[in-house]
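Reading is simple: the token line describes the chain's fold. The lines below illustrate.

. . .
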Amino acid sequence: MHNRSDQFTKSLLRDGLSLVSAAETEVEVLAATQKIDVYSVPDPARASERAAMGLLGELSAEPSLFEPFHGTPSLRQVRQCLRKQLTWHHELERRARSAARSVAPDEDTDTPPQPAVAFPALVVIGPGRPETVLDAYRCEPEQAGVYQAVPGLAMRVVVLAELPRTRATLLLRLLGSGRRFREAVADLAALPRDAWEKSVVMPLLLHFGLDQQEPTTDEEDDVSAEIQAWFEEYKQQLRNEGRAEEAARAVLTALRVRGIAVPDILRKRILIEKDPELLERWLERAIVAASIADVLPDLS
């Protein structure tokens, strides 16, 4: 996935899952010239937060590979995802063996016991219903828009066109395009001002320019103006209500999207800041920053 929409998709999955998991994008799979789009390992301490995330939380309840497609995935493409899943499990087992040897390097055995490694689940996401895939792997409906393959594959297929238009499916529907994306944007706008979804999605929409794309229809122009209006409203909200913690998270999200590493000491500095006007300035800088010095020039 290389274009702006693809990067937005991966970033949205990563940042949403980062609220309740250790999530990373483009995880290299050794012994194969492939990359996992997003790999998520759930944080047990955040189980209650995950439950509040709706469908994305359900899908990330176990270590999982997320593979989103902008077109309906073909059987060949899903086979490539399954190959990543198997290769990645092999790599996890190799790492576990290496870690076990480092803990007990003097153990006198040529074949140390194989540590138990959970087989990672695979979540394939696409806009349309992939009939050949569903037939080939005997996928059965699990809930509206979600299909479960035969148990041994540990694979789910998410069909964005079939997801109900509810808050529980919102983050996944934002991975769609065209009318489906516009509907999801409208649903996001209708959420309460302090909705956690807005703090995750807004910096990404701004960073990837989805609030500034050249409109092709009046409807898309309305969406673009609406996203920009959210940002202005969000800044005003920070001034009026002093939502420092939410603002600090938005700054860190914007920096992560820009690929800017934040040293622990500066991360703590951002999180303890209580001045909403200062946090607003940091957020504006973070959206276009090239380095942490561009955001915190007096501290870095």
Remarks:
- The first strand starts at residue 21 and ends at 29.
- Residues 212-220 have pLDDT under 50 and may be disordered.
- The beta strands are 21-29, 34-42, 64-68, 121-126, 140-143, 146-148, 155-159.
- The two ends are 33 Å apart (CA to CA).
